[in-house]
Each structure stands twice: as structure tokens, then as C-alpha cells.
Amino acid sequence: MTTNSSIASETREQVRTTDLSDSPLPKIVADGVERSFGSGKGSVHALGPMDISIDEGEFVCIVGPSGCGKSTFLRIVAGLLPPSMGKVSVAAKSAHPASMIFQDYGIYPWKTVEANVRFGLDVQGVRKSEGRRRARSWLEKMRIAEFADVYPAQLSGGMRQRVSIARALASEPEILLMDEPFAALDAQLRTILQEELLELCQAERRTVLFVTHSLEEAIILGDRVVVMSARPGRILAERRSPFPRPRSAAVRDAPEFAAFKAELWELLRDEVEAGQGSAGRRS
């Protein structure tokens, strides 16, 4: 991830102007981003070129077939993986602007729930008393305060993901990167956590980049849904949600919900089939 001080300085200048013009600034800009793995004849072109601009406070969901580079792009934005070509720029106000939440929770089994939530704050050098206060606050918000002294092995999958979300938000990131965080949960838990995340994000209005295979999840959560092609993943289409904020998960019952889902699936269907054909050739 490129956190450019000149970009941040320019952003601060533009924010003062933007307050008057009321046009949002991009928080994340991807310019010609590509990623390949391997070299020579064995090289795999996994992603791109990909160009996207995400506004501050915007919740963007990325959907696409398996293997199209969705998670790869998220890791590039997080700074965990360099792009092979192009660049990602982030208009950051802090040294640690992004937190990432993974499908497999990414929490430490040898640490208690509270210690896991406090971990990022400890790394950043936050005072222990302040770290404990912020950790406890987010444990309360995620409804797991009573499990503060418990170890992850004693928790259900839904509880572990709540710990992961609390840890990410305790550091008060400008950007939240979420890689299929609810994919491993059963349908009931997934619905509950979708509703809790929706409520949290509408209250906090952080910039969120959310990867999912679920069109329903993308529609419920996102301000914008980005549809990607089969590998190498490129942006096929972008659609704005027909549902204004604040919204609730009750939008599932609206006629517009089914229509929007059908539109997204029509865009995605051929790419899913192409992705399956590619996987079959590789095997």
C-alpha cells in the first residue's frame, strides 16, 4: 500500500475546499494494478489491470468468481502484497490507516479474547490502560465482554469472528478491509453478523472494502457493488445500491432487492462459468 505523504498533504488541502464544494475525495485509488505469480512459462496472471476509486466513508463490496483476484487485490491495498504493475494510493491521516479481517479469524490461540483485541494497540505503542479501555469498549459493542478472559478454543466460530472484528476496530482504522469474513459461518450466524456489521458501519462511517461471494450480502452491506471478471480479474461493472442509508437488513424483503440481485447475477453468471472452465483446465 502506498501511503504517500504528498498525497496526504494534498488531501488535507482539498478537504478544506471539498467542504465548500461538497464533492467527496477518493480515499483509495488503484491505478492499473496487476498481479502475477511465478515466472516464465509457469507464470499466472491473477489480477488486472484494475482501476478503481473509493471515497472516504464508502462501503464497497467486491464480488466475482473464485480465483479472480478479489482477495489478492485486498492484500495489495493492505500492503501485504506488492502489485506486479500499477499502484495503490491511500489518502491516509495516520501511520496505520488500515485493518484487515480474514475469513479464518486470524486471532492468536494462546492469547485471551481481551489480549487478542488489544494486540494491535500494543504493537502501536498505545498505553496499556488506554488499550484496555478501548478493547473493553469494543468487546461490549460486539457483545462478547463476558468472554474477555476466555481463550479462542473455547469460542464458537461466530464468537471468534466477533473477536476479529473487535480487534480490527479497536485500533480505530480509517479503512477496514474484510476478506469473506462470514463465509465459514452458518446461515443464521452470518445473518446476525451482517446485521451487526451494518449497524456498526452506519454509526462509524469508515471506509470499507469487503470481498464476498454472496450477492445478498453485498446488497445488504454495500453502497456500491463491484463485479469482477474471471481470472485475470478486471472490473466488469459497478452498481450503486438502490437502498439509501441508514438501512436495515429488512431490505431483503423489498422488491428492488430481488431485481438488483438478478441484475448482478446476470453480469456475473458467464464469468462464474468461465472461472469453472479455467479451474477444470488447470486440474
UniProtKB/TrEMBL annotation:
Highest taxon of source: Bacteria
Residue ranges, annotated region (Disordered): 1-23
SUPFAM superfamilies in the cross-refs: P-loop containing nucleoside triphosphate hydrolases
InterPro entries associated with the record: AAA+_ATPase, ABC_transporter-like_ATP-bd, ABC_transporter-like_CS, ABC_transporter_ATP-bind, P-loop_NTPase
Domain ABC transporter: 15-255
GO molecular function annotations of the record: ATP binding; ATP hydrolysis activity
Pfam families in alphabetical order: ABC_tran
SMART domains in UniProt: AAA
Keyword annotations from UniProtKB, A to Z: ATP-binding, Nucleotide-binding, Transport
Name of the protein: ABC transporter ATP-binding protein
Organism: Nocardia speluncae
